[in-house]
Each structure stands twice: as C-alpha cells, then as structure tokens.
Amino acid sequence: MNTMRLSTILLAAITALVAILLYSPLFVPIVSSFFVINHGQADWSTPTLSAYIALTENTDVLAALRATLIVGLCTVVLSVVCGTLLALYYHSHRAGGGALQFIVFLPFLMPPVISGLALLIFFREINFDRSLVTIVIGHTIFVLAIVYRTILTRLQSVSRTLVEASYDLGANGWQTFWRVILPNLSSAMAGGAILAFALSFDETMITILVTGTQSTLPVRLWAMMRLGFSPDINALVALVLLFTVLLCSLTVRFLIPKQVAGFHG
Q: Which one of 3.30.300.20, 1.10.3720.10, 1.10.530.10, 3.20.20.70 gives the CATH number of domain 55-264?
C-alpha cells in the first residue's frame, strides 16, 4: 500500500514538473502584456492595458490576423465538405478505396516543406498567381486527412440497422443521409472542423511557400522575429492562447463520447 502511494506521489510530481516546464513559458507574455516594457525591462509597479490598445492600432498585424481567419474558415468549409464526401465514398466499399486513402493521407504525412514546394511548382506551372486562394488550397490539402479520418471513424460506428430501418420506412437515399447519417456525423464534423481550423491557424511552412502579397499571422510573426516583437505582440499572444484554450475545450466536447465524459465526470 505504501509502495502504491509512493508511486502515485512520484508520478504526480513528475507530471506537475513536466506541465510546469511546458506551460510556464506561456505565462511570460501573458503577464508581460499587462505591464509597460522599456528597453526589455518590465515595469511591474503599474498594470496597464496599453499593449491591448496598441494592438487595435497595429494595422499590419490586424490585417494578417484577418487573412488568417479568412483562410481558416475557408479551409474548414472545404475540408469538412470534401472529407465527408470522401468518407462516404470509402465507406460504401467502392473501387479505389485504398488509393483514395493514400492520396488523402500522403500530403499530411510528408514534411510540410515538401508539400509546399510541390504546390509552389504546380501553381507556377499552371500560371496561377499566389494569393489567399493558394493558401486555402494548401491548407485544405494538408488538414483534409485529419477531417476525413475523424468523420470516417464516426461513420463506421453508425449502426447499419439504422440505415436499413430508414429504407424500410420508405425513405430514399437523400432522406436517409439527411435524417439518419448526417445527425450521427454532426459531432465528428464539428470536431474535425475545429481541428482543421487550429491546424490552419498555426500552419507556417506551407503558407510561406504558397503565399502572395497577403500574409497570415504566423508568417507575419515569423518576419517580425528578425527585428524583435513590440509590446502589443504580448497582448496578441495572450488573446491567441485564450482562443486556443477555447478551441481545445470545444474539441474535447465534440470528440469525446458523452458516455465517456459522463463516466469520468
């Protein structure tokens, strides 16, 4: 009994240490965003929201953030629609299922720089100007595997008897999809959409290679690293971190089955 208690305490201590090492650096910009920084030194005597006010006036960063949100939302729509259609095709056991999965998963498994270079060469060969559209295409190809697999896993768990019962009651294929299959896939689609948006929001390497005159927020921050960050970037990091926590909470809400959540609760 004492050995089990000692091992539990030891595991808890190791877990706490790892958590501190991983997450403590994140609190530095958050805390710094509420104080004035002069020549790299923070004035801890007077809390202020000046960094957040300055952020609202930083047009370059706000433009990059706006472009990031546009790209993320477009990527979510395309990846969820394509992922759902591809999952339905594979689940119907039609020809080419193995090749389909290979094509879907290959861009995600390859290093992003390889995928980005392939897209860059492709766009150049067809004389397609790089813009937010090319970024959306690159991000969609990259995140499609996650969305597809999330939806396919849920689709494979749907009981076949539900579909058969729908047909027995006189519903056609479209009605069965709309009233039986789609409601069962909704949580998986929502979870896949959240994961797709998070991956798109963070993607840098592919974006650098396929971007045009408009840059996303990660690329903008990458460029600012050479000159140093202004204090309002600390405020941006704090807001992005808060947004990320909300995304993680929503992902857990949609991807963990209710029975499991209730058991642990």
A: 1.10.3720.10
